[in-house]
Amino acid sequence: MILLGVNLPDRRLVKIALTAFHGISHHTSRLICARLLLHDRLKVEELSEDQLNSLSALLSSPATHPLVATPVQAPSVPQASTSEVGQLRDDQTSERARREDPLRSLILEADLRRKVNADIAHHRNIGNYRGRRHVMGLPVRGQRTHTNARTARKLNHAERRRGYATVAHLGLGTPSLSAMTGSSSFLGSAMGRHLLGSTHR
């Protein structure tokens, strides 16, 4: 089943299939199922038309979706009585009134990717520690770099032209290659080894 451009396997549970969306974790998926009153063992192929419409409306615009949805049950689950549904609505409304709704700020797919890229570009532009680590292609959260940094070197690298753009971006000017290699402190630093390695490839 294709929902908002994402393929959801028909035989997968709804709470598991929703994690195919970029930005939905298992915890967020359980919150969505609880919001729409979807059964815990409901599969994608068992979703009714009303349930699909409610799910699509929630994922497309979570900020404008009502806090309490119309109770829609799976065909195999018995319907609750009117008094129980009313009590459930009152409990949910009072509980969500005491704290901020976590689904209001839900960002998915392309919007989330753009936000992450914009945040990384912001850190690089202001030149803080995280931005410098992104530019140098090193881990940004205090991980060790003597070993086990292959993923960071693969993902956290900036668009550089023979190493000079990186130095200029960090506010260090644009020194010549001879001036850069002539400094023993630069050669001994992690940044010097990284830049010189990129220039001689």
From TrEMBL:
Coiled coil: none annotated. Gene3D superfamilies: 1.10.8.50, 30s ribosomal protein s13, domain 2 (4.10.910.10). Residues 73-100 are annotated as: Disordered. Keywords: Ribonucleoprotein, Ribosomal protein. GO terms for molecular function: RNA binding; structural constituent of ribosome. The keyword Ribosomal protein applies. InterPro entries: Rbsml_uS13_C, Ribosomal_uS13, Ribosomal_uS13-like_H2TH, Ribosomal_uS13_CS. Residues 87-100 have a biased composition (Basic and acidic residues). One of its GO terms (biological process) is translation. One of its GO terms (cellular component) is small ribosomal subunit. Residues 76-85 have a biased composition (Polar residues). Pfam families: Ribosomal_S13 (PF00416). It comes from the Eukaryota. Belongs to the universal ribosomal protein uS13 family. PANTHER family: 30S RIBOSOMAL PROTEIN S13/40S RIBOSOMAL PROTEIN S18, SMALL RIBOSOMAL SUBUNIT PROTEIN US13M. This is S13-like H2TH domain-containing protein.
